[in-house]
Amino acid sequence: xxxxxxxxxxxxxxxxxxxxxxxxxxxxxxxxxxxxxxxxxxxxxxxxxxxxxxxxxxxxxxxxxxxxxxxxxxxxxxxxxxxxxxxxxxxxxxxxxxxxxxxxxxxxxxxxxxxxxxxxxxxxxxxxxxxxxxxxxxxxxxxxxxxxxxxxxxxxxxxxxxxxxxxxxxxxxxxxxxxxxxxxxxxxxxxxxxxxxxxxx
Length: 201
Fold this sequence. Notes:
Largest sheet: 2 strands, parallel
Radius of gyration: 22 Å
Shape: globular
Mean pLDDT: 82
Order of helices and strands: HHHHEHEEEHH
Number of strands: 4
Strand order of the largest sheet: 1-2
Distance between the termini: 63 Å
Helix content: 55-70%
Structural class: mainly alpha
Low-confidence stretches: 183-201
């Protein structure tokens, strides 16, 4: 999940360069936003599961699959926001490939390039929520097959869509006009209308 934090940081910097305002981030409102915390919390919990237990893999994969339910839900509820449909598409891609393979398939060669070290000897069965990508992998193109050396990671096509969607969403929010004193203006407007009605009577 560290790469998501980097994506958000890059998006914020780019939005600032293009005239965005950090102040706008305080005005961001997502419908059912606690679902976001629930979904990512479940994924973090899956990462924390010890990898050396007989129940580790199944438990971690189950947690990850269930975590996509609140994440897809929040993307759908906020689909009117810029970039959110890309976020939902990326999440759905990752959900699908993990569900049909019993874990996120990882291409060893891509992981070796991304991490900068040979990992072909890793026992993927011991990893909490990943499986080895091989000839029997279904929807292999949706697995972790994209090495990102600068982030020392390997990501999936769904991760790419997710990152682009988040970037578009953050930039759109930061470049919106600042709504200064919106509550005060609303109250003033309402008061003026009432005042006008009294004079007319």
